[in-house]
Amino acid sequence: MLNNEMKLRIIKIFLWVVGIFLLFWWPLSHWFYSNFYHQLLGFKIGSYQDNMVKIIGTTGIIPVLLMIFSALDPLRNRHMIITLIVFSFSIALTYVFLITTDQFPKREYINVALSVFLGTFLLVFFPWKEKNNE
After folding, report:
1. Whole-model pTM over 0.90
2. Does residue 89 form part of some domain?
3. What Rg do the C-alpha atoms of the chain give, in angstroms?
């Protein structure tokens, strides 16, 4: 069984790694290599509006920053962890809706899995009963 100190170390590393990965996966991909990203996920070139892609990329900065700031001190920033969990499950449901209504290709289930994994990991591993040492 992991003690709370070990859980916090794991969460810090997890948030840094996932935050850096998502920086390239969402914001930067939508700004600098959106054709590659969209082809990878099964979109046809030109089936998406570039201006909307840029807006999505810009909004993708928010969860990345939440992860990085949360990683600095997870206990003190538990409200950010809660926000990340809510965001993760909300965006997963949004992807599922878009996929099941044939607005997004099936390969977008990659983002569903990524989002559910992020939210579940934080929900399970965060030491909720641990007090902040302020």
Report:
1. yes
2. yes
3. 16
| Domain total of the chain | 1
Structural domain of 12:
4-125
Q: With contact defined as beta carbons under 8 Å apart, do 105 and 41 qualify?
A: yes
Q: Is residue 78 part of a domain?
A: yes
pLDDT tens for 7-59 read 999 999 999 999 999 999 999 999 999 999 999 999 998 899 999 999 999 99
SS (H, E, C) the chain: CCCHHHHHHHHHHHHHHHHHHHHHHHHHHHHHCHHHHHHHCCCCCCCCCHHHHHHHHHHCHHHHHHHHHHHHCCCCCHHHHHHHHHHHHHHHHHHHHHHHCCCCCHHHHHHHHHHHHHHHHHHHHCCCCCCCCC
| Amino acid identity at 123 | L
In a domain, 130, yes or no: no
On whether residue 132 sits in a domain, the answer given is no
